[in-house]
Design brief:
Layout lengths: L2 H15 L1 E3 H8 L3 H13 L4 E3 L2 E3 L4 E2 L7 H4 L4 H12 L7 E4 L3 H6 L9 E4 L2 H9 L3 E4 L3 E3 L4 E3 L1 H7 L4 E7 L2 E3 L3 E4 L2 H12 L1 E7 L7 E2 L2 E4 L5 E3 L11 H9 L1
Parallel strand pairs: 4-14, 5-6, 5-10, 6-7, 10-13, 13-16
Antiparallel strand pairs: 1-3, 2-3, 8-9, 11-12, 12-15
Helix pairs in contact: 8-9
Length: 251
Amino acid sequence: MLLEKRLEEILKLVEKNGSVTVQELTEYLQASESTIRRDLCLLDEEGKLNKVHGGATAINALYASARDVEIGYRKNLNREEKGEIAKYAAALIKPNDLVFLDAGTTTERVIDFITEKKAVYVTNAIGHAKRLVQAGCEAHILGGKFKLSTEAIVGIETVSELEKFNFTLGFIGTNGISRTAGFSTPDIDEAMVKRRALMQCRRPYILGDSGKFNQISPITFAGIEDAELITTEIKHGSFRDLENIIETAKK
C-alpha cells in the first residue's frame, strides 16, 4: 500500500476509535511494525494525531492532570451517572462474596445500593469502611499511608496486605480510560494498590463514567484486557467493546 493511502487509513481508524495500537495497524494494513511506527511519527509531527507508547490517540484525546483533584470536588461530578453505575455494581454482590471496594467517589456510591449483608468487604478508604459498618456490613480496612486528596490508604504496606486476600470480586476506580494507555491514575502509590487489588480479584470490575473515556493519566495500572467495565454506556462488558463506548461518549 502506498504511503499516502496508508496514512489516510491510519487517520480514519484513529478518528473512529479514538485510539489505535501498533499491533492493530500492522494487522489491518498488512505492514511491518517499523513501517507503522514511522507512519505514526510522521502523522504526529504533522499534528494529525498523538503518538503514544504502543500506538496513537486522536488529537482530542486528553491527558489528565498529574495531580489528583480533591475528593470533595469530584463527588459532585457526574453524580447521576455514578449512581447508575454504582447501583448496577452493587447488584453483582452475592452471599459469601469477599469484595474489594477501592477508594474513590464512584466506588463510594456502591455503598448506597448494597443490600447483601452476608458478603465481607475490604477497602482502602476510611470513609468507605465507616459507611459499610453503619450499613450493617462486615468491613475490613487495609493498613498503609493515608493520602488526604483521595482519602485512600496506599503504599507498599497496603500492597503487601492485599496479597493475602483472594477476592471473589472487586470494584476499582480509574481516572482515565484509553485503548492504548489502558486504565490510568495520577499517583504511583495509588496505581500500585489498584493493580495489586485487580490481580487478587477473581472478577475485577472497573467503574468509569463517561468523563473518564479518552483520558490518559500519568500512571497506567492495568491494560484494557485486564478487567471488565461498568459504565452507563454498556453497563457491563469487556474492553473489546471499548471503541464503541468511546465513540458514544464523544456524541
